[in-house]
Amino acid sequence: MLKMHLLRVDLTHKEIKASNVPEKLEKAYIGGKGIATKLLYESLTPRIDPLSPENIIIFGIGPLNGVNLPGASRLTCVFKSPLTFGYGESQCGGFLAPKFKKAGVDFLFITGRAEKPVYLLVEDGEVEIKNATHLWGKDCYETEDILRKDHGGEVFSIGQAGENLVRFACITHRRGRQFGRCGAGAVMGSKNLKAVVVKGNGEIEVADPDGLREFRRWMNENVVSKLESMKKFGTPSIASLTNEAGVLPTKYWEKGNFEYFEEISAESLQKFVKKSTSCYGCSVACGKIRKSKDIEVEGPEYETLFALGSLCYNSDPKSIIIANDLCDRYGLDTISTGNAIAFAMACSERGEIDEKIRFGDGEKIIELVKKIAFREGIGDVLAEGVKRAAEILRVTVEPVHVKGLEPPGYDPRGLYGMALAYVTSQRGACHMRSCAYRPNLAGVIDRFSTKGQAELVKDREDFYCVVDSLVYCRFLCLPIIGMDWKDVSKLLKIVTGRNYPIQKLKEIGENIHNLTREFNKREGVTDEKLPKIFFRYPVKIYDKDVVVKEEDFEEMLKEYYRLRGWRSPDQD
Ligand code: SF4
């Protein structure tokens, strides 16, 4: 197996150091998230301000990136989150990870703060710090266009939201692909780092090329073939299922079913689809370019559809498309943005803020996206995320978040697995750390019962810690229909020549998850609480009033702690 290369960039002192990742780290953590998290944990000074120069952001690939397989395309990044003040992580699809591999750079470790705006040019194992004064103030689309014209290669960048330190600013690549959650864009902005360009044409070696060909055939027949609906509609394909099941968050978590759903369903959105796009080497091509008037956007993904649609009680698909486009341009995480806007709507409806922000007002949503990105008026408060916004505004509307991160589009009142998964996810309320919504929605596990949920969440969390270390796309590794432990073990052997027995992989996954929790404990982020609304305020599901029962939640959490071998929540 080839050595993994690490480039360290100190923007304050303009210092660059290259080294190999120690072999024992590779063996213990595989790559991507695993190694990056270990480096972050060991290098970060505890309790620093995440927007200070001392914060570190690490981009990393894994052993499977760049091989000719659907899904082998994701780049991971880890950092201390300016939104949660705890462990921050995000993964981005597209074409970045294979390019890093071809450039001979496995990890890009960035700390410090440049005196003036800069971008990094990573090329064939080296990195150069370049002046970006001419790019500051430009949006992500403009920045990427300029840098690709100047250098070629692949680019990721921040927009005005990252420059303005919006706490949930994201990083954009190829317009429609993002490092979305936890505020990685604000961390780049705080470092005066506008963008990174990656270039390289190195070879990608595979230990067993025949084995890889056979695996690709198996994957196309057994995994890709099961993603037909995603291929046709993109991620909104799941929306009719969540709406029907009563778990589509609506009107700022008041309801789980949207009366005007038909207007924003995947089927309705089809009339806007111009073409499909895919990440490197992927035949699923789940990206959908939708066009409304002169706006063309890759999206809306399901999470954007719920956040800027049903959560804001907005049934106007055109306004969702326009707001989605602005979020991608300015570099805003659509889940947190939609939650922040819907929170403001709830406050306005109760007369707790002066601004008139009506539920369902698509024009207002567009206006607020701009105000958040540029921190204007109420947008300046919402740019802090709902947890801080509620404190600043002193309102009684409960801000819905876990550890400060706003939740995605799965109401836990009708998905017990998600009630647990939201609190055990170390980056805050997240659906992707465990994907527990899938087996719950599919009926593989009773979604209103505690039974088996802790075991499911723990196993999937450990599995996805490994997947994010490969670094592989979730959609090819979904519960029930995607690759599982044995397939990953086999694929690692084919690509690296190394043996990773299933039990060993499970231990690695568990170690990585434990490390993220240790990180949070060290930072004082130990909150494992579900928002009160889910316990106290029922949603109607099949004519029944449904809440998460507190005793059920405690039972699941206790069982989860037992399985992890941790002390019980009330002792911690
Ligand atoms: S399934 Fe979609 S997100 Fe995943 S690699 Fe393929 S195109 Fe990209």
TrEMBL record:
Cofactor: tungstopterin; [4Fe-4S] cluster
Protein family: Belongs to the AOR/FOR family.
Domain spans labelled Aldehyde ferredoxin oxidoreductase N-terminal: 4-202
Lineage, uppermost ranks: Archaea, Methanobacteriati, Methanobacteriota, Archaeoglobi, Archaeoglobales
Alphabetical UniProt keywords: 4Fe-4S, Iron, Iron-sulfur, Metal-binding, Oxidoreductase
InterPro entries the UniProt entry points to: Ald_Fedxn_OxRdtase_dom2, Ald_Fedxn_OxRdtase_dom3, Ald_Fedxn_OxRdtase_N, Ald_Fedxn_OxRdtase_N_sf, OxRdtase_Ald_Fedxn_C, Tungsten_al_ferr_oxy-like_C, W-dependent_AOR
The name this protein goes by in its record: Aldehyde:ferredoxin oxidoreductase
A Gene Ontology molecular function term of the record: electron transfer activity
